Amino acid sequence: MNKAKSDFYRNTIYNNSDNLRQLWNCINKTLHRKGYVTLPTHDSTNSLYNSLSKRFKDKITKIHASFPVSASSCNIDFPVVHDPCIVFKPASLTEVSKLILSFHNVSCELDPIPTFLLKSCLHTLIVPNTKIIYLSLSSGVFPSHFKHTHVIPLRKKPSLPVNDLNSYRPISNLSFISKVLENVVSVV
């Protein structure tokens, strides 16, 4: 595993020697430097999470309320679909493999293994991953585990006040396999 990590960082540094932003990202990852998220002052972590969660939910509710109540009030003629069943063509091992390899090596805390490791072991892991995707598409069920996301509150601008909840926006990070499944639906 250490050799795989070492090879990954060496290749990333070599491949991004002309892209300073990516190069610094790689160096910071290698040195385990993380950008620190500035959060509002709080008494307890739970109260902060609850406050931010309420703020984000209220914002979504407000956005939903701004849309027309029904499609008929939009004066747009939507086509009537007589057969609501959508059938997806199963993705082949080659298609899923190409798709996985096309992604950047960005992982989420919800991923069981880092993306770069999944890619380096793809010859072994492609069959179970393709099977998961096939079962999801053939059953018409997006696994509930894939709907989970890691949400990070991020200040919109550094100049905004730290203690104002309106200064933050939610950044969500989905698991890698859920991103692959979404892309299979859009590509295949």
Instruction: Please provide the count of β strands.
Output: 2
Largest beta-sheet characterization: 2 strands, antiparallel
Distance between the termini: 33 Å
Strand order of the largest sheet: 1-2
| Helix/strand order | HHHHHHEEH
Low-confidence stretches: 76-83
Shape: flat
- What is the number of helices? 7
Radius of gyration equals: 21 Å
Portion of residues in beta strands equals 5-15%
Give the averaged pLDDT, no decimals: 82
Proportion of residues in helical segments:
40-55%
Structural class: mainly alpha
Report on the architecture of this protein.
The chain has 188 residues and is mainly α. It has a domain at 90-187. Helix content is 49%, strand content 7%. The protein has a two-stranded antiparallel sheet. α6 packs across α7 (176-187). The longest helix is centred in the first third of the chain and has 22 residues, at 45-66. It is flat and about 50 Å long. The model is unreliable at 76-83 (pLDDT under 50).
